[in-house]
Design brief:
By secondary structure, the chain is mainly alpha-helical. The protein contains 5 helices and no strands. 77% of the residues lie in helices and 0% in strands.
Length: 175
């Protein structure tokens, strides 16, 4: 007579299945953490917008140097919002993958695999790198150090492109 209680293969298999099935909710910690970080950055970005506008109105300076500083501040704010957006995409994507696939999200944010999440994140990160470079270009003083910065960002983007291309070639069905 086969055992069906603790210690039996069937029982152990069911217990492990139940543990793994419910442990997916541990992902809620990552979802919550990335969502709170995203919300924090979005609120901070808004506070920076108000601070920049307040400073602009207080100073009343419409010089070329002031407009350059305003553009640099604006680009830095965009970077804050983009990083907050990356964290939101991570939060929503992890929730969609591990907890509930039927949450109402925009069509571009429908995540069906970790690869989908990585692709969305990669695109936003590349944009964030380009925005960071734009910020440096705005503040550029004519020195050559911007060349190294631009080449480093370009190298990262090229490397990501190569890895993405190689990964797609390996996973796409022939035909």
């Amino acid at each position: 007579m086969a055992r069906s209680g603790p210690g039996s293969v069937e029982y152990d298999r069911l217990v492990i299945r139940d543990i793994l099935g419910t442990s997916r909710f541990l992902i809620l910690l990552a979802v919550l953490g990335t969502f709170v970080a995203s919300a924090t950055l979005q609120v901070f970005g808004l506070i920076r917008v108000v601070a920049v506008i307040t400073e602009l109105l207080r100073a009343g300076d419409a010089s070329s140097a002031a407009s350059k500083a305003l553009i640099a501040d604006t680009v830095a704010i965009i970077d804050i919002f983009l990083i907050g957006t990356v964290l939101f995409v991570i939060s929503a994507g992890l929730y969609q993958l591990f907890v509930n696939q039927d949450i109402p999200l925009p069509g571009w944010l429908k995540i069906e695999s970790l690869d989908d999440l990585k692709e969305n994140l990669t695109e936003v990160i590349i944009v964030a790198l380009l925005v960071a470079f734009l910020g440096q270009a705005i503040e550029w003083n004519g020195g050559v150090e911007i060349l190294a910065y631009g080449l480093a960002i370009g190298a990262v983007i090229v490397a990501v492109g190569i890895v993405t291309w190689a990964t797609r070639k390996r996973t796409e069905p022939p035909g």
